[in-house]
Amino acid sequence: MAALSSSVTSRSYRSGYSASFSPVKGNRHRSLSFLSASSPRGRLNIHDLCVRFQSKSARASVSMQDGAIVTDSNPTENKSSLKGLKEEVLSVLSHDVAKVGAESDGQNKSTVSITVVGASGDLAKKKIFPALFALYYEGCLPEHFTIFGYSRSKMTDVEFRNMVSKTLTCRIDKRANCGEKMEEFLNRCFYNSGQYDSQEHFTELDKKLKEHEAGRISNRLFYLSIPPNIFVDAVKCASTSASSVNGWTRVIVEKPFGRDSETSAALTKSLKQYLDEDQIFRIDHYLGKELVENLSVLRFSNLIFEPLWSRQYIRNVQFIFSEDFGTEGRGGYFDNYGIIRDIMQNHLLQILALFAMETPVSLDAEDIRNEKVKVLRSMRPIRVEDVVIGQYKSHTKGGVTYPAYTDDKTVPKGSLTPTFAAAALFIDNARWDGVPFLMKAGKALHTRSAEIRVQFRHVPGNLYNRNTGSNLDQATNELVIRVQPDEAIYLRINNKVPGLGMRLDRSNLNLLYSDRYSKEIPDAYERLLLDAIEGERRLFIRSDELDAAWPLFTPLLKEIEEKKRIPEYYPYGSRGPVGAHYLAAKHKVQWGDASLDQ
């Protein structure tokens, strides 16, 4: 934190000494010294050891004079001297320093305090607390940890635990000791009621945190599960009144990160008044999904894919997100943002950047995020003519009437906010020049799914079209990565149907995760919370990613809203507006999820 003091941290080693590290901002330079109770200032300097060693070993030096090797005349005495020095050093390190290390060992153990700000909200109850319990159940949390809920609701610790207990399940392997684990977990949960902009209330939280930290090195993680308009107030109070004084302090910020380029930049500037960039963990839970994280593994560790990952072989790439339900009471929040901001500008664009990036120098978080930024900076701003927007309307099916978007009581009457959008995007670099990247996202559609579809070019020459009449231009190879549900990776190939004739059809080479792996796939929030605790930033969004991403959508959003562009209406439970198919056809593409054999 910019407003925090950075103090010296130390670690006691079981080998009999303790090392003290003095961090400098950025962790680029550290000083290392060995502590000793017997040295004049309690500090045994490496330089002093070297000087003493050199003075005692001078007579044992070996040099070259006129081509001859000259050694000391009394090697036995020198060996004895060196042996004595070695014993002296070991004695200092093993006796005196071990004593100091033993006395401070209990104090130097660290603890992690996780504070969920907005603990009474839906996100906390549905995702955050279950994810924290799953991490505890699997033994992934540190030995010493405490969970605090913080919100405006008045609750005692007991009432808070009762609320949290209703959100927990024993889904993980259904082991017999799950009930015991749940009780242990709840005993580490505490509550503090307060306003999000109150320094006084955050000071009360700080006192409670210190009581549970009991003098250990305190590491603190704040999860802001609150509306974006109060992010800065909460960060200011946490920074100035409840941050760690001898460990790290990190803050997880939920999307949306602004509404456009201007508001996003303003939010980043405000946060950085109280936090350093490496303390801000901007979370996009889609980046924590198993198949999204596997994307780089699939590409960079399999020789058959990387050579094909370019305009030479790929005809188009599709990122498809669909939900089979409407806003259902969340219309007030959703209407302020719409489907483009809610899904396309963050979830789908982040996946696109991971998909299209060049090979990073390493798996280090900064190397990966650097490559993502390069992709975003190479993209064209989206043109209005390359976008279709829609909104679901009421529809009766099977005797059941499904409501229109504007039937939601939390949605303003006559709202034109899109609940569906399809867009064509382009990356102007050597690898992807001319390849359309199509996005499609919508609510109240016919199915719930999220997938990446890579459609390859047709086979040159089309040999089987001449011989069998099969139109392979319409049956090209397709790689499908199904993010949810029923996680899977499958490759669609053309194959001969068994028999005496020559007839072709399309078949799938299928990796269905539920068949291949017996272990349950962790929830995205579990992975991202664990990464935040461990300081792994690879799956979190850096500020310059936002700076590069928002300009792609801001001109489009302003034109839609300022000109009050009317969305194309589609029935609840359908495949969306017909205009989406015309958009795909304009770029000589067919939506992969539109075929009957998808």
From TrEMBL:
Reaction(s) the record says it catalyses: D-glucose 6-phosphate + NADP(+) = 6-phospho-D-glucono-1,5-lactone + NADPH + H(+)
PROSITE patterns referenced in this protein's UniProt entry, alphabetically: G6P_DEHYDROGENASE
Pfam families for this protein: G6PD_C, G6PD_N
Regions of compositional bias (Low complexity) in chain numbering: 1-18
Residue ranges, annotated region (Disordered): 1-26
Superkingdom as given in the UniProt entry: Eukaryota
Biological pathway: Carbohydrate degradation; pentose phosphate pathway; D-ribulose 5-phosphate from D-glucose 6-phosphate (oxidative stage): step 1/3
E.C. designation(s): 1.1.1.49
Uppermost EC category: oxidoreductase
Keywords from the named record: Carbohydrate metabolism, Glucose metabolism, NADP, Oxidoreductase
Stretches assigned to the Glucose-6-phosphate dehydrogenase NAD-binding domain: 116-294
Record-annotated membrane-spanning stretches: none
Glucose-6-phosphate dehydrogenase C-terminal domain residues: 297-591
Biological role stated in the UniProt entry: Catalyzes the rate-limiting step of the oxidative pentose-phosphate pathway, which represents a route for the dissimilation of carbohydrates besides glycolysis. The main function of this enzyme is to provide reducing power (NADPH) and pentose phosphates for fatty acid and nucleic acid synthesis which are involved in membrane synthesis and cell division.
Family recorded in the similarity comment: Belongs to the glucose-6-phosphate dehydrogenase family.
Protein's recorded name: Glucose-6-phosphate 1-dehydrogenase
